[in-house]
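Lecture notes, unit on protein representations.

Consider one protein chain, 486 amino acids long.
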Amino acid sequence: MSELHELLTLPKLPITKDYYIKTLQYYLSNGIPATYTLENVIEYNNTDTGRTLNLTTNTTPLHTLSRSISLLSNGYNTDYLKDGMLNIDTVDDQQATKLKMYPVTKRLSSGYEFNEEECQTILDIINLLFEYGAGWNFLDFENKTIGNLIYNEGIGSVTAVAASANNTILLNNIYLRFVEAGIATELLFRKVEEVEWIEEKEEKEIEREEEEEEEEKTAAATEEQMNKNTNNLDIQEQNPADNQSVFLETPLEYTDSSLITKNNKDGVMMDWESDIMHIAAETVLSSAYQEDNDKECINVLNIGFGMGIIDAFIENICASNNDKKKYRHYICEAHPDVIARFENDPIWSKNPNIILLKGRWQDTLNTILDQGDIFFDGIYYDTFSEHYNQDMLNDLYDVVVGLLKPKGVFSFFNGLGADNPFFYDVYKEIVVLDLQNYGLTCEYKLIKLDSSAENCKKNNGDIVWDGVKQSYFNCKYYYHPKISFM
């Protein structure tokens, strides 16, 4: 263990600025990176042993600090952390990917109570580490983030278990600081990616680049011809979740409770989402039947048919109010297998109130937007193989603003970062900030998922993810967004 990591095991109590801030400042200012990991230490110590270590995790100083605070608050001994935290004796010589933490021993009958000065010092330590470039989203040897070590399930769903009121406040403040760091970092990276770096070029460099450009064109033409023969193989090898073109050519399969990719068994949609979809249907239609709303026909749009779960709820709401207001239910779907499922089911295909928009929403909705005669009381978005920065932020929000009625409501399936509760909390706030730039406000409703995939996965009963290769939602709660004009 490095001296920096050892310092952050908080071996000296009480925690004072005079000792901890000065010592930390000394290490950082003398070149020890705030991102220096325990895995780096192990690899350095084994450079002369001939061992092949393929460590893939990143246990940073912030991980050590977070683990120490959590253990102290709950009355555990952190002395063992100074001996290494990572038990090198358990590391396999060939593939060092499994690391073990030494056993935790009880030291206190109750948790250590941090006083106000100690709480502030800890926050100052965290701020100093971030100032020197500490990361927010690294996974340590237990595949935990710094946020996971403070809260296991996210600030929106649980209350910290702490020995005192001060500790509870401290844990909340630390978690919020971590979320804040995640938001700031993600927004900064986004800005950096937008910067065009311009370099001065010598005349000879320009001439050489022109020659290389001609050679590249020739090579590209040859490669294009070769790709025509291997396109099908490439499609099979690529991940449908990462590439929409690949997904649209990937065969899908309907089971009794899910829609999955036929070959890889990746979950596209599952019926555990039904409760969420019911609330979503009520949300997007929440302004449609208000007394002060206009008397014209209601238009509602769902982007991504999938299993038709939300569309069934939309139909129930609209059909039950059809005597008050007529409605048109638009469904946008691009995958040929899903379209075939829709068209072969008379419940959907023969319904005179439903209008199927075949193709990518980027094409079909822009056509409606250009026509300028159809606007929606409610819009819902739930697609597969699309990504927030590339699709929602860059294109979808523009379309929503153009198609939504002044009192209309927009919502989407919020799985952003839902593979980790800490990431989920960060991206929840990023969405709020992004929507403000479009004149939209976002309110979240916290929904407990008592029968969620995470719960069922741990129980040997009705296992939701049975037969599915990879889960796409790993939180026990759901942040349901309701979005409207400010």
